[in-house]
Predict the 3D structure of the following.
Amino acid sequence: MKYNYKDLGLVNTREMFKAANEKGYAVPAFNFNNMEQGMAIVEACAEMGSPVILQCSSGARKYMGKEIVPMLAKGLVEHVRAKGSDIPVALHLDHGSDLELIKDCIDYGFSSVMIDGSHYDFEKNIIVSKEAADYAHKFDVTVEAELGVLAGVEDDVVADEHVFTQPEEVEEFVSRTGVDSLAIAIGTSHGAHKFKPGSDPKLKLDILAEIERKIPGFPIVLHGSSAVPAKYVDMIKEFGGELTDAIGIPDDQLRGATKSAVSKINVDTDGRLAFTAGIRKVFGTNPKEFDPRKYLGPAMKEMKEYYQSKIVDVFGSEGAYKKAAK
């Protein structure tokens, strides 16, 4: 069965990004893999009055089932509406690999898609990105593309080397592809093991500023922007988990970026860490527990509370829309 995203209560990202650029905040794009993570995300955003992009990778879609994802998204929208919140909610494909996947996601109710041609050369990236944009726009679905390469590993995304976006290429890329937003590489990195402790990760804000001069007002996206909070790394280790020490992107660096052209910031790893820490704490303190509600509920609460703080400290999007009753 095919779905129109509007019938699911979803919106595309066009008006979201316009408002974000005008008011100096970024829209949270949080990845989810199950119902509990989805609830943590929408409840956090509804209670803070923040718009939200529910982000789903191809791997997460396969895991949940492509028939289930649109119904889950519809349920999550209705959940926040029942709480009295009017926040806009988009369902976005993260790192779409080809046009066939793009088409299938649009058929199954996605309101926004990403075509990732960043591993191709410049001309091939333009060709595949334009192809995706031309198709998606027939259905009023917004399209994100990527220029530059982020190093790291997360879900289906693997890259050994980091290639910064070249500001001199962005104007031509945007004009020739017709995409609605552009993911750039300015120092963020995919996955939990971004930077070693003791290092001083910094975003290339000079590159961002030059890109903004080249394409003023155009929505910019940052991928790989988790902070890898020590709190959750320590909790996971305390209750039996194994993680290599690492640090992520400092919140103040990201907040500075949101005050310019950055309209969307992707966060996945932090949610995984918070969720896993919540589960491990239950099992570590109560090893007899076997009721999924008793360990998934605390995991959801941990993830929700962390994202609420992230909305304030990084995105600056709190209060943009009517808040839900807690």
